[in-house]
Design brief:
This protein is α/β, with parallel strands linked by helices. It folds into 2 domains: about 230 residues, Rossmann fold (3-Layer(aba) Sandwich), CATH 3.40.50; about 50 residues. Helix content is about 45%, strand content about 20%. An 8-stranded mixed β-sheet has the order 1-2-4-3-5-6-7-8, with helices on both faces. Helix 1 packs across helix 9, helix 2 packs across helix 3 and helix 4 packs antiparallel against helix 6. The protein is globular and about 65 Å long. About 5% of the residues have low confidence.
Length: about 290
Amino acid sequence: MNPQERTVQIDGQGFEMLGILSLPGVDTPRRSTAVVIVVGGAQYRVGSHRQFVLLARRLAAAGYPVLRFDLPGMGDSPGEAPSFEDTAPHLAAAVDVVARSADTRSVVLWGLCDGASASLLYLQAGQDPRVAGVALLNPWVRSKAGLARTHVKHYYRQRLLQREFWRKLAGGGVGWAAVRGLWTNLRAMRRTALAPLSFQERMAFGYQAFEGKILLILSQRDLTAQEFIEQASTHPWWQGALERPAVTRHDLVDADHTCSQPGQQQQLEDLTLAWLAGVDQASQQAISA
């Protein structure tokens, strides 16, 4: 049965947002867990290639109430667009609406890019007991040092192993531009290594302190995903983060940032549904305990 959809008004202190609530059809058993989709970047509730529309409807068809919404200044929500670092009040208002509309005490945050980052910052800021899980697609952790480190590791290291690079270098060709780029990135790594990384640190604290389930999906062909892996593997804030028992990790082969290629959206939805079933089961057990 196709899901039912309706608009909802999300009001907070000093802002208002428009959302679309997707509910299971009348003949579909409703799950006890609802989902809030947190968009990333300069996007609104539809998403790239209708990604969030497709995801919301697929989850709702499986019994999960889903809310996707426009932050202020985006889509149909008035006001000035906030930084993703300052969206905790907006996420709190969205969780309030979906929890009330779906009559549930268990909510999952599903975020892409800096929407994933905002979800972790929300956990760190509020420690909302209603949040039973977070699904993170290619979380954003960019800094000058981190970007430089990722370029050195994932681009320049490969270039240095290519015979064509050394042939051009010996012949005075474009290889020198690559050498200059490598030197620039090495200097950036050194110059900013000790600079405070406030939002990344807050993200790590939210991630590490969270007692619920985490779904981490990383696209193989995405620089943002590689930056996250690099930071999670090297910074003490993230120590052991990728190996935690509560973390389910999937690396999507040949996928780009938004999983835009044929079949990748369905794969993303399948992974989310399989993980959500475990979150929902745990939530039901907690409610009945």
